[in-house]
Amino acid sequence: MSHHEDDRSAISGPSRRQFLILSGAVAAATSIGAAIPTAASAALGGGIGNLPGYPFTLGVASGDPLADSVILWTRLAPEPLAVGSGMPPKNVPVHWQVAHDEAFTQIVREGEVFALPEYNHSVRVDVRGLAPDRWYFYRFRCGPELSPVGRTRTLPAAGAQVNSFTISHASCQTWQTGYFTAYRYMAQDDIDLVLHLGDYIYEGAITAAAPRGGTFVPDEVRAATNTVDQYRLRYSLYKLDPDLQAAHAAFPWAITRDDHEVTNDYAGGIDRGQKQLARRAAGYQAWWENTPTRCAPPVGPDQRIYRRFTIGSLAQLDLLDSRQYRIGDNDPLVSKLGDEQEAWLIDGINSTGATWHVFAQGQQLGGVNQDSPTRNRVYRAYHDRQVYPVIFSGDLHWALVQDSLLAVPDPTSAIVGTEFIVTSITSTGDGPGDQATKDNWLKRPWIRYVDGYRGFIRTTFTPTGATATLRNVKFVTRPDAPTWDAQRFYIEAGRPGVTLV
Prior knowledge:
Blueprint: H1 8-12, H2 16-29, H3 39-43, E1 60-63, E2 70-75, E3 92-99, E4 107-115, E5 122-127, E6 135-142, E7 145-146, E8 150-153, E9 165-170, H4 181-187, E10 193-196, H5 211-214, H6 219-222, H7 228-239, H8 242-250, E11 252-255, H9 274-289, E12 307-311, E13 315-319, H10 339-347, E14 356-361, H11 373-384, E15 390-393, E16 399-405, E17 415-421, H12 435-441, E18 447-451, E19 454-461, E20 465-473, E21 483-492, E22 499-500
Parallel strand pairs: 1-11, 9-10, 10-11, 13-14, 14-15, 15-17
Antiparallel strand pairs: 1-2, 2-5, 3-4, 3-6, 6-7, 6-8, 9-19, 12-13, 16-17, 16-18, 19-20, 20-21, 21-22
C-alpha cells in the first residue's frame, strides 16, 4: 500500500470506490456533446452568462506534485470541438478550491485565477503550502458551474522515510484506433503517480469512416494538425474521453512528450526548417495548454520539459525529453538527448541519496539490439557510480522488459539496471501482436519478456524491492474489454537485473 495504514482514513477521505462512483457520474456526463445543468445555470437560461453551455467538458487534472505543492488544471470549453471552444475572447475568472474531504467541508486552500484567451482559456494553478505525503480533493467554479471533483496528492518530503510508492506508466493513445479502456482500470487502482511518456495525441488526419463506434467528428477536427487551433481541437477530442478523464481525476500525472505531439519521427536537432519550427511551436503550445505541468510555457519552438522529482528517501525520478534535442542515435560526439540534458541527467545521479533511481523517457535511448553512444555514456555513468536505474520507456507499442546492458548487444557485458518499455494504450490495435517479432526479440538473452497486447505497467517501490505488474486489455476495437495481470516482475534494491515472478 502507498499510504501509512494508520493515516489512511485521514489522508484519503472516502474510499477509492466511493470516489470513483461519485466522480464517475460526473465524468460520464461530460462526454462528447453533453452538458451538466445546474439549478443556477437553469435560472440563467442555461450556460454561464453568455457561454453556450457547461464549461468543464474536458474534466480536471493535476500533476507535477512536490512535497508542498501540486499543479491543478482545467480548460473552459463549452463547445470543445469548435475553434475557440465556444469561449468569448476575454479573460474569464475561475475559482478553485482544495480540501481534505470530497464534500469540501475542510477547505485548506482556495483562490481565483483568470482563464486567458491567448492560452485557449486553460487554467493552471500552482497550489502551495500543502502538507507533504497527503491526499487532497480539488475542484473549480466558473460562474455558477462546478467542475468534476479531482483527487490528488503531494510527494513525501525530501529525506522522509517512505514505506511504499506506486507509479504507473503509459504511452501511445491513438483515438481512432480504439477505446481508452485501460484508463478505466487504471482509475480504479491504488496509484500514487501516473507517468505519461508521450504520444498523448496523434497528429495525422482521422480518416476512418466511423471511428469509435460511429462517434461524429467534425471535419475541422479530423484534419491533420498543423496550426495551433488544429492541435487544440485534437486535444479536445482526446480529452473528452470519459476513461481518460477518470484517470486524470484520480491521481496526479507527470507528462513528457514523444513525437506525435508534433509530427511523426521529428527530431529537434535535425528538423530545423521554418515550416517544421512553426508546427513544433504550435504543437508545444497546445501541449502546454492541455497538460497539468509546472514547466514554463514554450518560447516559440523551444521548451524545457525535462525535470526531477524526489519521493522522500525512497526514489528519485528524472523525466526526460526524447525529441527536442535529438541529433541522431549513433553520433559518437553529439548526444541524442542534447548535451545539456545529458549532462543534467548524469550530474544528478545519486544527487538525492534515494534508494531507487528512475528515469523515464518517451523512447528508449537506443534500439534493443543496437549500439548507441548516448546510451553507452549514460549507462557507464550509472555503472561507475554503482547506481542501478529503473528505466521507464514508451513508443514501441510492445511491452518489453529487459536487463539493461552496459554494452548492447554484448550479452556478456555488465547489467546496469532494468528497463520497462510499456505497450500502448491503443496504438497498433488489438493484441497479441506478431509472434515472429516476439520470438525474434526473445533470442536476445537480456530481453526477459515481450507482450503485444495493449495496457500499462504498474510498479510499486519499497525500500527493499520493486514489484512491477503488466496489466493487459484484451481488445481496444470494442468498448468494455476485460483486463488481466499478464506478468509480474521483481527487482531487489541494490542489485541490477529483473526476475519474472
